[in-house]
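pipeline/complex-builder :: batch 7 item 3
reading input block
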Amino acid sequence: MKRYRNGEIWDFEHEMPVVAVGSRDVILGLDGGTTSTVCICMPMIPFSDPLPEPPPVLARAVAGCSNHNSVGEAAARETLELVMADALSKSGSNRYAVRAVCLAVSGVNHPTDQQRILNWLRDIFPSHVGLYVQNDAVAALASGTLGKLHGCVLIAGTGTIAYGFTEDGREARAAGAGPVLGDWGSGYGIAAQALTAVIKAYDGRGPLTLLTSSILKRLGLSSPDELIGWTYADPSWARIAALVPVVISCAEAGDEVANRILYDSVLELASSVKAVVQRLGLCGEDGNGKFPLVMVGGVLEANRRWDIGKEVIKCISKDYPGALAIRPKVEPAVGAALLAWNFFMKESLKKALKS
Amino acid sequence: MKRYRNGEIWDFEHEMPVVAVGSRDVILGLDGGTTSTVCICMPMIPFSDPLPEPPPVLARAVAGCSNHNSVGEAAARETLELVMADALSKSGSNRYAVRAVCLAVSGVNHPTDQQRILNWLRDIFPSHVGLYVQNDAVAALASGTLGKLHGCVLIAGTGTIAYGFTEDGREARAAGAGPVLGDWGSGYGIAAQALTAVIKAYDGRGPLTLLTSSILKRLGLSSPDELIGWTYADPSWARIAALVPVVISCAEAGDEVANRILYDSVLELASSVKAVVQRLGLCGEDGNGKFPLVMVGGVLEANRRWDIGKEVIKCISKDYPGALAIRPKVEPAVGAALLAWNFFMKESLKKALKS
């Protein structure tokens, strides 16, 4: 990876035409995950205007992993700075046009994580810029609610987490603690259970299953014995989670073991959402109150006959009939930009009321 | 780690008094695990004599990990060579006194692994020495049966495996595929379930449990949130498995969640043994046949009120009343030495019959 000298990332700004302050204000939304980081540059929408649908996007930039737990603080910071510079440069803008930034990155779990990132964001942007740091799940929620922090989001890709907000600002989460700590509804969880079922069928602990031939074929292996070497050769969770489509195919073909694994994952995922809804009282006092339930991630995509997301919604609706399922039409980085806009608008209105 | 030049490990042999060939023959037994490697040097017992109990030991040497999957081929080989040299040197012996070697190492799963290790053992020892390479589970079985390969061994420490042999030389194994592939009865499995229960109690997915305060206290953490950082800071399975005594204490104190986890592990461990017994027909045609069931490893140790090993035996005996539970009095390396003696005796008798 190229290392940048202090400030070098922003050299492009010297080559830009000078524009009048306020003439073309922008906001930045970042979605930083373990596989990639996306930055969206959006024009500043006047507070008086309704939010256009779909939200306008000036530029989109993509970079690698920005989870500080995975790549370390320095590399995460550089990736985030680079992707913001790239998005601004692509939209013909610069830091002086930025009004607000919302950085939604995975691995931000504590106020201390948040403060550390805020501190170095402060070094990059002028002091009047609104800066907001959130967990990436928050951007996913906002991508379904168009920037409003209310309701619950369920993310299920390689990992899984449920995250909820009340209108008065309380929040709660469930799962999201990784595969060792019980994220069994995730893509990794589903695939690991399927691999386990193959091993158990092979050594006599479990019933025979179509998963054996299907998974071995997909991986180009000739015996379940070889799964051990394959599994531990590379600790990447995403590599294991990539087997989810094989499990779904087997379930669709009627394999009982694969069906059991998928139903278990539905129960696990629904249980995460229910825990959040319960703790926040999102369903109101009578349990029938309406709330948005945003569904995000590869495991929940509605492109298969065996539709995990649909089953999860069915399971949640039994207890909470007011759950309004939303599959977002925009990506989480747009959600982050809308969040930045919302936060900044609220702060500006507060200041205006005070003065 | 110090690197040795070719042959340097064996320099001690030049400084030894010359002894007559056959005057003090020895056998070597090695038990190579993921945490340590033990080598036992035993005097050669005449084939006509009964095996003394306990078996005589001339010297014992200990070294680090010799699992080639963990440390690589070269380091594993050097560790094994060093520990053999150490045991021989300690017993005032040398390679020319060795009649047979049994190397029982974890990670040996395929005939190709076996052949590779045999090839370099051939470079070390004179051609008349009997060389045998086995999975470490085999040495654990032999430590309970005093060198006889018959019955089933259940190992449950950080990991778990069940391994069985029939008297006519057929073998079968179950589990032993590591935590991702369903070794839920292992120490790692028990501890990971306990950590998961703490997370689930914290985020509202599961019932409150005594495990929360007990595990946090043991780890010096103040909130379940911090378990995430603790868990992924170090990928060592043994570090997580070290929490098993906390789970047992909580179960003994009446905690339902901890009890459920231990009972689940009992079922998993029993299921491994049952699969092996079933496949090999160790229980005879009527299902009541007697067979040795050797129980090895920290999880099965009978030093607690909540005795996991006892529960496993109870569970197996329901289906297979002929299971004769054995908790070995000698360590697996002694089992490996007895195996070497047994293998070598059989080969020698075969040769004698032919000539």
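note: Strands of chain A lie at 26-32, 37-43, 59-63, 98-105, 130-135, 151-156, 160-165, 171-175, 291-296, 323-326.
queue -> next item
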